[in-house]
Amino acid sequence: MTSTQKHLRVDPHMCEAHALCVEIAPEVFELDDDNDVATCDDNPPEAQMPLVRAAIGGCPRQAISMVETP
């Protein structure tokens, strides 16, 4: 049986840097140096997951997702 891990991802092609994710979970998300796309810790601490889920749901472009990797 192969185990998978979930990783947080911001799609840079969909992100328009509204920065709602940064406001919701500043310990996980930030804007890049040019302030034109959000970046994230791809493996945030479990304690941050409620805020991460809120950021995923609050993204106006639905650019944030949790992806499974083997």
From TrEMBL:
Keyword Iron-sulfur attached: yes
Origin: domain of life: Bacteria
Cofactor: [3Fe-4S] cluster
Coiled coil segments of this chain: none
Assigned keywords, A-Z: 3Fe-4S, Electron transport, Iron, Iron-sulfur, Metal-binding, Transport
Protein's name in the database: Ferredoxin
